[in-house]
Amino acid sequence: MSGLVLKLSPKERVLVNGAVIENGDRRSRLSIVSPNAHILRLRDAIHPEQATTPVKRICYAMQLVLSGDADPQESRLPLLRRIEELSRILTDNDSHHRLGDATDAILDGRYYHAMKALRALIPRESRLLAVHEK
Description:
- This protein is α+β, with helices and mostly antiparallel strands.
- It is 51% helix and 16% strand.
- The chain contains 5 helices and 5 strands; from the N terminus they run βββββααααα.
């Protein structure tokens, strides 16, 4: 059991093993019991042209694993290397904690949890890049 629980808003869409599934008119909660299911919330999806920063590029690569477009085993080492590179740049405690969570999740094959941990870094990355550009 993967332990993944999706809480879906009304009409929210999710990609499960290549099929787009739309929630009904009410909020719902789904427990994913298949350990190797490819699942991606479409509201979390990053389009290729949006993957313009280091964190977004890692999230996009992880998204390809979740959608079934990239092999998890082949993607594992490159994703871990990118997270290691980020850990040299994002040196605050919170970032290191989230990067550690993402690393642990990848090592456990929990790519959705890894992407969730990394997505939390996008606002911080945006602020840092905005300050750097000034």
